[in-house]
Fold each of these.
Amino acid sequence: MLEITDLHVRYGGIHAVKGVTLSIPKGSIVTLIGANGAGKSSAIRAVAGLVKGIEGEIIFNGRDGRTSLKGLPPESMVRKGIALSPEGRRILPHLTVIENLRLGAYSRNDAERIEDDIEYVYSLFPRLKERSWQKGGTLSGGEQQMLAVGRALMSRPDLIMLDEPSLGLAPLLVREIFEIILQINAEGKTVLLVEQNAFAALKIAHYAYILEVGRIVLQGSGQELLTNPKVKAAYLGG
Amino acid sequence: MTSAMFIQHFFNALTLGSLYGLIAIGYTMVYGILRLINFAHGDIFMMGAYFIFFGTVSFFLPWGVAAVLAIAAASLCGVIIDRIAYQPLRNAPRISALISAIGVSFLIENLALVIFTGLPRPVVQPEWLVKPLAFGNVRILPLGLVVPAISFILVAALLWVVYRTKPGLAMRAISKDIETTRLLGVKVNKIIAFTFALGSALAAASGIMWALRYPQIHPFMGVLPGFKAFIAAVFGGIGSIQGAMVGGLILGFIEIMLVAFFPEFSGYRDAYAFILLIAILLVKPTGLLGEKLEEKI
Ligand SMILES: Nc1ncnc2c1ncn2[C@@H]1O[C@H](COP(=O)(O)OP(=O)(O)OP(=O)(O)O)[C@@H](O)[C@H]1O
Ligand SMILES: [Mg+2]
């Protein structure tokens, strides 16, 4: 569904992504793992059209057929069927929960079904339903993360990209979020999951890439990497 | 002062204040989204007045039709100004857009001077608007009732757009986080154009009603009301629509009542607003209803 070939991202003199090639088959969960500063966000943001002047090729095979995403502005992604839940959640703090969700559906024109999808998100995250009229900025970190994932779902994406959904969450909440990721994948969505929490991510991923200072150093199925001694040593705490 | 006089002053203040408020809303909306002081905004106000003058005097259009056309035309001018003078500078340092705004303002004023000439033009007031109504010994111009009423209807309509419609939701989102809003599929430049259209429409409406109230129009008529409305926007809390209206009304009341109660100081009437500005900036920089607007990344 998404094929990235030899992607380079540079910020002035900083070469953050140095020739990443990866592929995300339709219907799968693929995870991109790496330490702080490895270039994970840079890669995912390049796909979303948020960084200028990238090199390489990004091909998306979706509702419009095979198209290159390179050079497209971020606002075109949701229309192609790609949604990003950005690092740090980026909830609009002054808008209510339901307004944040409606904004997620901004590209759609089927008003009645948007209301259905809001109910669907509330069924995934009942805690958001109770807080429908609460301002996004007053939610707890975990609730904001749920809202960020729910908001990304509101565009009805075929590919959903999640940048560190477990960041700053207690273990119980991490489990909850990852179960939802499994569920939306089972419902047919392709998932690109960027994570530092390697253990949780590898457990649910079909395929995984490990990124170190801008380069992919290891790849394999989630199970393989979970038992790989190098991965164990570097990312799974021995 | 007799109570009859006070009531007359009250309606004068309400009129002046709502006219300031309508202009202030455009400043506040554009500032809330772009962190830009749109110096050309007062000139849109002036254009509204000229368009109504030409519509009624040169083309003999009925007042209502001329007003709608004048508002539409001025609104379009606002959008064009954004497209030509501000949009290319979206990613430039903010000072560039500010200087561009000052430039556009001078350009429009001087173009108006060339095209419309500097001669003050008399706007013809519909008679029923200026024939005083007598309530006992209180005499009020119908204008003093009509202008505030129309202003409040316009503000209510605007608030409905901002808080109840999809483009309104996008406007509110952009004012906090442009990147995330784009990511969610909002075409930001369209929403900004829409914001300029709304703000300019209100400024033009204000210009038209101003021309009815003070029926001498000239190319620089937008400068002072523009500055005062900007002060009203800061006073009310820049970024807040309700604040801009409240700020405008307070400014209108201060101006009219100070002159009414202290006629000996009436020569300073334009200075009050600026003293107020300095005072707010010192005491409460976020204004009455404003929240802190953080610098956006
Ligand atoms: N806008 C930017 N300007 C300059 N350098 C940047 C920018 N964004 C990221 N970088 C640099 O690029 C490198 C990769 O950053 P990136 O955010 O992609 O890492 P990451 O893998 O997502 O890290 P984390 O897990 O901490 O989120 C870092 O060295 C970072 O400092
Ligand atoms: Mg990151």
Amino acid sequence: MLRLPNFEVRTPERLDEAVALLAELGEGARVIAGGTDLVPNMKHELFTPRVLVSLARLPELRGIGDAGPGWLRIGAMTSLADVAADARVEQHAPALAQAAGLVAGPQLRTMGTLGGNVLLDTRCQWYNQTYFWREALGFCLKKDGTLCHVVEGGSKCVAAASNDTAPALMTVRAELVFAGPDGRRVTPIDDLWIADGIANKKCGRDEILVEVRLPHSGSGHRGAYGKLRDRGSIDFPLLGVAVKLELNTEDAVADADVVLTALQARPVRIKRASELLRGVRIGTEAFLAAARGVAEQAHKQAHPMPNIPGDADWRRAMVPVYVRRTLEAAATRAGPVHAV
Amino acid sequence: MAARDLHGIGAPWGDRSPGDPENRAFEVIGKPHRKVDGLAKATGRAQYTDDLVLPGMLHAKTLRSPHAHARIVAIDTTRAQALPGVHAVITGRDLPIQYGVIPWTQDENALAVDKVRFVGDAVAAVAAVDEDTANAALKLIRVEYEPLHAFLDPEESLARSEPRIHDDSKTGNVSKHVRLDFGDVETALASADVVLEGDYVFHGTTHAAIEPHCALAQWSAEGLLTVWSSTQITHYVQRALAKVLELPIHKIRVIQPALGGAFGGKSDPFSLEFCVAKLAMLTGRPVKMLYTREEVFYCHRGRHPMQLHYRTGASKDGKIAAVDAKILIDGGAYSSFGLVTTYYAGQLLTGPYHFPNYRFDSTRVFTNKPPCGPKRGHGSVQPRFAFEVQLDELAERIALDPIELRRRNFQGDFTRTVNGQRITSNGFLACLDEVERASGWRARRGKLGFGRGLGVAGSMSISGTNYPVYPNKMPQAGIQLAAERSGRVTVFTGGNDIGQGSNSVVAYVVAEELGMDVADVRVVAADTDLVPVDLGAYSSRVTFMVGNATIDAARKLRASIVLAIAKEWQVDAARVRMANGRVFDTESTERSITTAEAFQIAEAHCDTLGSTGSYNTPTLGGDYRGGTIGASPAYSFTAHVVEASVDVETGRITCHAVWIAHDCGRALNPMLVAGQMEGSAYMGIAEALLEEHGVNRFGLHAGPSLLDYRIPTSVDTPELAALIVESLDPEGPYGAKEAGEGPLHPSLPALSNAIFDAVGVRLRELPFTPAKVLRALAEKDARSAPVARGRA
Ligand SMILES: Cc1cc2nc3c(=O)[nH]c(=O)nc-3n(C[C@H](O)[C@H](O)[C@H](O)COP(=O)(O)OP(=O)(O)OC[C@H]3O[C@@H](n4cnc5c(N)ncnc54)[C@H](O)[C@@H]3O)c2cc1C
Ligand code: SF4
């Protein structure tokens, strides 16, 4: 078995204590939630924190409930299994419930948290490897090296955002509540991302994600998640597609949103999705045609690179197929779209 | 010579012809008994090598090469040696003697001497107080390398002999070349009505057994070396240790604890066994080494990538006239079993169909990649894939049902193959009938609508071979029985139970022969100090050979017990029977004693009770160089039908079901046989759809983890229907043949053939990734006028 580097674990019982601890410990500390991303990464010596600050005992980070009128809150430490099974999440953000239910496999969804998923490190076949392997390669730009191997001689890290819940949260305009040394801050999840594979999130090392807030949705809300992967379980996405449709009382689209992940360093919103679908009634030929239009737009916009395993050309060819199928699934409440 | 006695196919005490009412029915054989180690494994109590802890034990780690091909200029271990907690550091200089499982091609060193040949090749080993200290020490070892050109493409190894991967090779970078001709292939092809010709590719896969390799060594004050190892070949490991460590073989004891899967991946001696032994000898302390998952991928010995070219000639009614094969085999960095692989690639194709003329030309080359070796269906899965797809193409060409085509070419039973192999029982036709019936073939094939289809394939496999790896005239399998006055029998077997259930089989056989409860039979296995030699768990030889040896020993023991009881009762020995835990007089029912009482009487009459038994193969094989390689005392036969569908938009294949009909001679335990059949088909489909073992452009393993090496999960596994066919072979124990490897072969071609039925494209290159399927569909569309079809 690969060994974990040595570290110490602290388990603060209050949020302010945890924040203070992070500030005090500085660079050598890292937050651990379920550990399902961090622990393998530590075994690969991608991170070698001296101290892990566990969030396991912070009550503010637990549970799903109301966050004032019109808002649902999901504590950052809520397990993905709980997110996937929750009736309120299913009602207000079906795409999120579906995405959470397709992360990894059952054991990992029990340990893995929503907060950890939002803050998941980017992934790359040249990076998520053991120290020995990376050293034999001569390392890469993201960690310990100077070159990018995705594009030969490349000088920019394009490791892929690979968290399934992120695009789903973006389609429902979720907000993130962070606690840091300067108090709380609330930020729309859209504003979290940077197009840089080395660190694709605007989030300080000393900040703790407390909760994720979702606006309540109305009866016209439809959502679905489509996930491409080799196996029916365990694997990270080779492509993730989150879809939202807001229908009016005539079942025509009033608003739509499509966000893709596992392409490049940040999730990608498909342009003109709402414009192409607006006014079209679901269940009609016109809807299928509009869905095809969005799929074409997605194909134009999406350029998967050989950053994660799998044939990048095939991943690109799957973009329009999965966008179209996920739109249809959202309309008919038939999500998720997932082979096997 | 007892070893060559045939025991017959019937139950003991009634060796009449099958079906004869005089035959006593089997009491144990043929019933779904639990495995002898089933409960221990299910409850987590089985002890695997890594569970063993000895007082004062050190932990060892291996330093590995970051280069695919390089000369070692210098190694400096002084800093590692100086690290507190480090007890010893060794390099290739400490273990300079070469070894290899095949005596003629010993080209491996426990640690690299002068040269490294793939990324991950072992260079040095450290023993320290704990794993972390050993790992820290590895980082302090300085190795200076002079990189050499790395061969990643087998074609290049064929074309270029410099630089040489093995400096002393007389054949450049060619590891082995075999060409064998039977009959007159060219003439037959020239006069055939139809000739099919095509190229096929097998990509390379590995075993992915759940237990990583582990070894623990102890060096005693008396100079005795004990090595516990997760091996499937205790006997060969013992021999290899003796050679490399220059110790007398009788001073070495090798023990195989419970094993967490092997599939051929633990049938070579491995670097860690020598390293822990040497480190234990140097430090005087027990030393353990457990490989990481990544290291298991570097050990590899998985299925060889092959490029296969086949030509098949046939008459227009589908009779095969000639088969011509040319095969390029990518061996990776070392020989391993490669000599055998190169033969098997050709020798094992000559059934279940009659080939009047046959030729194969196979070449194994070295490349700078993890070494390939034997994986379940060693050497024969790749050619079988190519040939069975080509047979399907033949069926298509002459518009004949693919099952019918296979029937027409059936070679028959009790015959000889074109390459001189003796075929005994052959239930292949029954296998075809079974899969045809169970899959609803006649009503459903070609009628499931565009996108879904059925495919068939057949195969033949060996139940061990008469090639003993190192030439000798001694039995291939030996057994010792000790019957104790408590009524317990202990079986001492060299057989390696690697999860296939061979320890259970010997217990069943003894219980059957002595009329005892299986629970009263204990099995001591795979400990070279305690058991007679068995050659190991490979080539599906254990149940067949050890089973026969056990019958041999049990019948001898039974004879002495029966004789003693007959004397005691003063009756004719023919009246004494053993059954249901009792010994009784068939003519006087009140005369009946327990097995324990019988053992006591027998012990009083004859002394301590015990017996030995053995098995050796008959003289087999063709009369030509290599003619014994692949010559098996009995062949198993298999047919599969696979049902699969294709999503024509994504190219993704879903394998819905595999009907597996396998002729295993006699199912000694149908539950274990079905388990082997299902596991085999699972593995075959996995190799066809998902698994791929390769290196990237830098020569680094493409993803040495169970996340990136995609073995199917339970949700990816098709329905598997095991249909057991029993042909009752005269040579096998109670008529049994193998069941652990044969049922893998047809899975891959049957899937390809099902895809053809589904969407009309031929997949000749493994694995069948969605991208390849889409390309094939696009090529087909480009060839034909666009067909109207409902896109999803
Ligand atoms: C085999 C395998 C397969 C996987 N497959 C998938 C998949 O298909 N899809 C997918 O999206 N993920 C997958 N994952 C990744 C992981 O399991 C999930 O993303 C999970 O949600 C991570 O949550 P966690 O609580 O375990 O995070 P952790 O590992 O504890 O943390 C992840 C990162 O987030 C930080 N962090 C966590 N919580 C907070 C917080 N509240 N505030 C501040 N920082 C925080 C940590 O410091 C760390 O950097 C897989 C992992 C494995 C091992
Ligand atoms: S994209 Fe991959 S290879 Fe390139 S720098 Fe990022 S992690 Fe490294």
Amino acid sequence: MPANLDGNVLAGPLSEVFQFDSTTALVECMHCGDVKVFAVAQVWEDPMGLVARCSTCAEVLMTVVETATGTVIELRGIASLRVQSEAVAD
Amino acid sequence: MVTSGWKVGTVTATRTQTPTGRSIDLAVPGWPGNVAGQHVDVRLTAPDGYRAVRSYSLASSGPGESIQLAVDRLPEGEVSPYLVDDLRPGDQLEFRGPLGGWFVWRPEQVENVQLIGGGSGVVPLVAMVRSHAAGGSAAKFRLLYSVRAPEDAFFADELAALANDTFELTWAYTRTVPAGWPTPPGRVNRELVERVTFAPSPNLMTFICGPTGFVEAVSNILVDTGHDPARVKTERFGGA
Ligand SMILES: Cc1cc2nc3c(=O)[nH]c(=O)nc-3n(C[C@H](O)[C@H](O)[C@H](O)COP(=O)(O)OP(=O)(O)OC[C@H]3O[C@@H](n4cnc5c(N)ncnc54)[C@H](O)[C@@H]3O)c2cc1C
Ligand SMILES: [Zn+2]
């Protein structure tokens, strides 16, 4: 089953937590070691919040829950996160 | 580029675009400007405090304190019917953005660009076409725009008027074709893609946007026909 959405939709929720643009950040999957920009992650809309999965191995990378009192993220499957400067963001 | 926190815009104009969709112009004091392809998250708050947040692409780009959205109404939707049917000039709308620095086109990019949009998925691509036209960029642009029927196209007249030797526009109709159209209606398929879009090249960037099923199908066709996945950018709007 294809994912409902992709990492582009996380830009808003994650802007509440991070100062950098999350969609161009390079994410290293803890499970398969693949490194890809976060925009291409598969994102499911779950009643609880958003679940981002690795587009290579489908393991959970991150969950994001926005509530009235704040944003909770769980970085479950991310081995490293590399923030790109704007000059190389393309 | 990243600006967090909620802002308020005031609706200055709305325009019917399709039987189910319209564009919405907003005045946003202090708007930092945006790159073509970015989006905002719109937040509606009900009288009882219940909130719903949805993403909407910006049809506008560049500096200035006015922005434009274009929204298609989903029959049972929570947010889109309000934006399409109820919002009036003078009303305020809460949102955050500009958001996303990956699914974007900047005027200084020199490679050729293939845009492929389905339904309201054309909105960020329209921002790119406008930005390309405004900048007089020498990059060659092509847009393949898939709609159910001719009347379902957003910004149809403007897109047609912008077509010239650096911007080529091709329509694909999935249910109803205009009178005299040479082919029957049908989904975007490999034959059409190979006939009307740019061939794979290291000097090409492709942007695909629309309902998730459309984006999956079209991006698979591109990769199957030899496009480098790293040069095919996708944005999924959701749905089937
Ligand atoms: C980055 C991004 C940018 C977007 N930009 C735009 C835009 O410029 N214009 C625009 O009109 N929309 C855009 N969308 C889609 C938008 O965010 C909403 O999903 C859409 O308006 C439906 O919201 P709703 O509250 O009305 O419906 P909901 O209450 O969320 O959904 C109603 C039902 O429709 C289904 N559904 C959701 N999306 C679709 C779809 N696309 N096609 C068919 N069924 C669907 C849902 O699964 C649900 O069952 C964008 C989405 C993303 C992620
Ligand atoms: Zn993985």
Amino acid sequence: MNQVDCTIIENRELTRGNFLLTLRVPRQFSKPQPGQFVHLRLSTDGEPLLRRPYSLEGFFERGRIRAIRIYYSVVGRGSRILSMHPKGRELDLIGPLGVGFQISRKKKTSLLVAGGRGVAPLLFLARRLRERKRPHVFLFGAKSKYELYGYRDVRGGRLHLATDDGSVGYHGSVLDLLQREWEEAGHTPDTAEIFTCGPHGLLHAVADFARDRGVRCEASLEGPMACGVGACRGCPIPLRPEHDGAGYPAMCVEGPVYDATAVDWERLP
Amino acid sequence: MTPATKPDLRVRIGSLELRNPVLVASGIIGYGREYERLVNLGAIGGIVTKTVTLRPRAGNPPPRVVETAAGMLNSIGIENPGLEGYHAVKVPILRDLPCARIVSVEGEDVAEFCELVRGVDASGVADAIEVNISCPNVGPHGMRYSTDAGNARDVMTAIRPLTRLPLIAKLTPNVTRIAEIAEACADHGADAVSLVNTFVGMAVDSRTRKPILGTVLGGLSGPAIKPLALAKVWEVVQAVDIPVVGMGGIAKPADALEFLLAGCVAVEIGTAMFADPGLPESCVAGIADYVRGMREHSVDAVIGAMIVPEGRGVIRAGKAQRENARATRAASGGSS
Ligand SMILES: Cc1cc2nc3c(=O)[nH]c(=O)nc-3n(C[C@H](O)[C@H](O)[C@H](O)COP(=O)(O)OP(=O)(O)OC[C@H]3O[C@@H](n4cnc5c(N)ncnc54)[C@H](O)[C@@H]3O)c2cc1C
Ligand SMILES: Cc1cc2nc3c(=O)[nH]c(=O)nc-3n(C[C@H](O)[C@H](O)[C@H](O)COP(=O)(O)O)c2cc1C
Ligand code: FES
């Protein structure tokens, strides 16, 4: 982890309110793992005051140039300011932070379950799985086709899409896709594992699915942060009593990726 | 003096000499390790640790932080490993820090404060103790000892004989007359007071109709509170003779200077550091530049150097006012 200055190479609106940000990072930025995040300072004039956490969608190295990619949605004051930053502008970031996804040593099929903009870290993971020649299936659900982006990058694995409004792919929830995939392909806890990111409601449902079947499942969570480095204790994730040490582990250092069956979803806001 | 000369930035808090007047506030930097790759601790005066309580605390239910206009609310609830965990895990970290280590403690009652002060004193790594009698996030006992002068006196009287380390009483701004509390601390053994802790605040999500923080109420910090904090500091500076350590919303070197000019011997950097970990160091540089700009040799020339028009700026009855009254009485007595 380091604090570095990076430069915006591209900050492009893909669909309404959803952006792809590409940042050139210096050599001091160490190679990140899928699931890790960066803490971005969106302005230096105190508005917004705090940094904002964003998962990495990818890390790219070409010759001496290193770049990272982020998918973000405009949801509030910080992301609105970010969306107005032009190409060439410098941003200060701290990262890579947190602990990313752990791919089993044993060769299993990875089922990647993405909801909305939760797709970002899973696209990074899918690329990593392809590099390692690991079988994987990408299941991506969103409200409508306008929130389905990035998936064209998914190569080397099967891809299933779902939208709430039926504008593209299966008309319904990505959870149905998971159910169907599980049954039709005959996966078992021994042959498959699940990685998921998206709204907490979806993650909760995927976690229950995994718990019922005894399958390994990791989820990448979100929540407000202040320091991002484990100092302020502002980002607790409640775990189920049997996984709980002395209370609330900090998401920014022990997460944002958790064993989904360990998270106490009822106590999560 | 030639501008190239390094000004002397050393300040004293009781028997503790700091290499410069810039500290990091409690709850911001953990116990030093969390930020070690981002902050050059060797360049700043010191850190105040996350508050240690007698027993471990898991802290409050989430959400614990939310950004508000020019500030943030927190309801961490002093998540910490307790005194035993402090000895086992944090003392080895603190031992190696290249700056002053001020250990913050908070007890639920006077007996706990005593045990904590004894324990921290015995740990051998503390250069001073900040007595947190002002946390708004741990239930009713949190601010009991700094919202009532009698209670503040009881804590200070009990812990003073237990250590020779400088004791810094950290005050809450959530009172009508902060000078009274500061005086009680000063009169009963505090070597210094530090202020302000956070202002009690809350935020509501109008979409869900729920309070945003898990505990409903939290503490407000950040640039939004700087003018409020300065006014409290100014009130206390006039009331007591012991050193005052100021904080609240410092986000740039000029903010730190405001607190020094108002009479603080040192400042603590809080919330703004989350965005800018280099802030404490840039405050040190900014203070040094300012001293040079004044063509002075020492930061002493800045402390309390605010120019206040005669008879102005006195907030309620403070030390200056009492002295004025005394002087007036003496003068009128002499002429009769
Ligand atoms: C580890 C991690 C990875 C993330 N990755 C991505 C990503 O890849 N793409 C993306 O678009 N967003 C991501 N987020 C969420 C992103 O950080 C928030 O959307 C962002 O902080 C909102 O800032 P804002 O100033 O625009 O909104 P604000 O004005 O601060 O808030 C707008 C709304 O967003 C909510 N909110 C604020 N902060 C967060 C937060 N940190 N997480 C969730 N909700 C929040 C608020 O409660 C409010 O309802 C991630 C969050 C975390 C913790
Ligand atoms: C996340 C957070 C945690 C804090 N924890 C503590 C604490 O444990 N003990 C304490 O005395 N003050 C604590 N504080 C208060 C700060 O030390 C400081 O008094 C306050 O934030 C005002 O300064 P600022 O506006 O520069 O942040 C905390 C503040 C924040 C924002
Ligand atoms: S954001 Fe500070 S501990 Fe996680």
